[in-house]
Amino acid sequence: MNILKSFGFGANNKPTPSMQNSAVAQGPDDDVPAPAQQFAQFGAGCFWGVELAFQRVPGVTKTEVGYTQGFRDNPSYEDVCSGTTNHNEVVRVQYDPKDCSFDTLLDVFWARHDPTTLNRQVGFFLMM
Asked: What residue spans carry the region label Disordered (predicted)?
């Protein structure tokens, strides 16, 4: 048995049937944005308030919450909140760059997140 598989790494990263109806995105982000749109992903501690802020931005067409990094394969919300899985909560934003700039998304992110607050996660990733 591969030791990395016990930490959630490995080739079997397809969502299982129990993950299909999850409110939290599961599995790898191997899909592509809609035509003429882009993805950006932000890690800001708890994702619920940040996701709502992004949903209100003109030009944002879709948001998804999920987890990145970590040591457990397909963690539950409770697993991640326990602080034992080393995951970050993230929001993936799909947006139309003609209607919403990446700078606008950064402004929304930084208005909702103060990385100097103890135990806060921080990160943003441009995905094209």
From this structure: 9-32
User: Looking at 46, 52, 111, 127, which residue is catalytic?
Assistant: 46
Residues near 76 by beta carbon (within 8 Å), at least 6 away in sequence = none
- For residue 29, the tally of other CB atoms under 10 A from its CB is 15
Residue ranges of domains in the chain, CATH in brackets: 35-127 (3.30.1060.10)
Number of Cβ within a 10 Å radius of residue 51: 20
pLDDT tens digits, one per residue of 83-128: 888 888 889 999 999 999 999 999 998 888 777 766 555 444 445 4
HSE-CB of 112 using CA atoms within 13 angstroms: 24
